[in-house]
Amino acid sequence: MAPVDWLLHGQNAAELYSSQCRKTSLSHDKLLFGCAQEAVHALADLTLHGKEDLKYIKWRSACGKDGVLTKAVKVIFLHTLYL
Description:
Blueprint: H1 7-19, H2 28-49, H3 54-60, H4 68-81
Helix pairs in contact: 1-2, 2-3, 2-4
């Protein structure tokens, strides 16, 4: 539905819409957690099969300490703490 590097921009848009009492056309949280789930499956495949397949390579840049997906999950987590 969207490239992974869009996640941080999507979070900003979701927060703006929320402050304006507007509904979003798609659930940013659902998109974010769907991406995280796919990344976890790719890592599990790597662990079970011991080889880096195409799915794992796709998610490697998004995950990890400084990955886009990691940063987006942190932003959502911190945002929910302050609600």
